[in-house]
Amino acid sequence: MSTTLVIELTEELQQQLLERARQQNISLEGLVLQSLTNLVTSPISEESDPILPLLGTLTSDINDVGENHDFYVGQAWQQESRYAE
Predict the structure, then answer these.
(1) What is the reported pTM?
(2) How far apart are CA 26 and CA 33, in angstroms?
(3) Can you give the pLDDT at residue 50?
């Protein structure tokens, strides 16, 4: 099954895409489909998520955040609610 996607391109972008498609000897549709396929199948790099370089750089006495995430979020929410009053 396929779905039709309609997008609006600036004239400049359309010309750039048409030129790239011509260089690769494929249609504009083929170029867009290829690009979208590459986007969803490529692993997410650190460049696309600015938080990733921070992983492992913070320290805390709390070592069960993964297991008790909801509890800690609830505590933080309660504290924030008290400060807002």
Answers:
(1) 0.51
(2) 11
(3) 78
